[in-house]
Amino acid sequence: MMSTQSPKLAALRRLFPHTQAQIYLNHAATGPLSRPVVRAVQRYLWQRHQGPIDNYAELEAIVQETRRLVAQLLGTSPDRIAFAPSTSAALGLLAQGLDWKPGDRIAIPACEFPANVFPFLNLQRKGVVVDFIPHRNGTFTVEDVARVLTPRTRLVTLSWVQFLSGFCADLSAIAALCHERGIWLSVDAIQGLGALPLNVEVSGVDFLASGTHKWLMGLQGLALCYVRPELQAVLHPPAGWLHGPVDWEHLTDYRLIFYPDARRYETGTLNQTALVALHAALRLHLAAGPAWCARRVLALQQRLGEGLEQLGLTRYGSADPAHASGIISVQHPQAQALALALQRRHIVVSVRNGMLRFSPTYYNSMQEIDLTLEAVADFLGKRKRSRNAK
Asked: Among 57, 96, 220, 222, which one has the highest count of C-beta atoms within 10 angstroms of its own C-beta?
């Protein structure tokens, strides 16, 4: 099969050496590490190994630059960005930071990944009620959200992109609905950031959390979060030794003074290795161009989705382009066997809730999509001629 990759795509793929040996379509689970990320991490670890061991001055510059790059990605200012150990930990800041009263309510889609459910179910011990928004194959409408809201609803929390259906929510419309009723909107963005563009200020999101190890292609053990100023005014931070500026000359004065910005939610030493990795990953992503990356992701998933449907596989979710993302899941009674058959051909996907989930990203090629479709067709006994790669 002839390849007609653009020079930009070919150069990008060279930064991901695994593309020489496998077709990786599992970015909704774990993203690969690029050469720039590995080099940056190796440099940091070598400094800690051989010197300068106390490399905090260089690291602090990287942390501040990473904060700026995250803000650029999200369309906000660096003072709105904080880091946390994970998506769950970031959402826990929100769950534990608001003053809840018995009878307060939280609305959550009933198709969410547990990371966006358990921190809020844990509030039931305080008398908070969780209302689940009904869904149809992992999709829902703004009207579905509205029907669940009550005068006691204080928070709606949902995923920008659903982990299984790939349904991309209309955040602007949902935020407008919430704000009309004095309700905060929290977003788990882990399945969208790095694949699709998002401007948190334009969309009206109040709180956003995202791990960095999926579509952003960084390391586990780090998440970013955005806090809208109006929410910060009522969101109590936890207390840790890095809650505010450190006075190295008076460490035992114990003055609890929080940063005036979102850094107040960072309680202790950050995952430095993961921050170094995120810094390099963001530089690569922003250099490639988020808009270009998004067009690539959506084109790849469209070709893959159409091909799977032509093979007779039932899609879970919606094929509506208005809600498209990089995730496509299909139903098959032998989903695990099909995943193993693909793995034997060096094609990596995942199985979730008994469904086969594909999640290509922007460095994947159309040729890889066609080879994947051929492998699925072979398993189904429906081999068909694929189109020339583009």
From this structure: 222
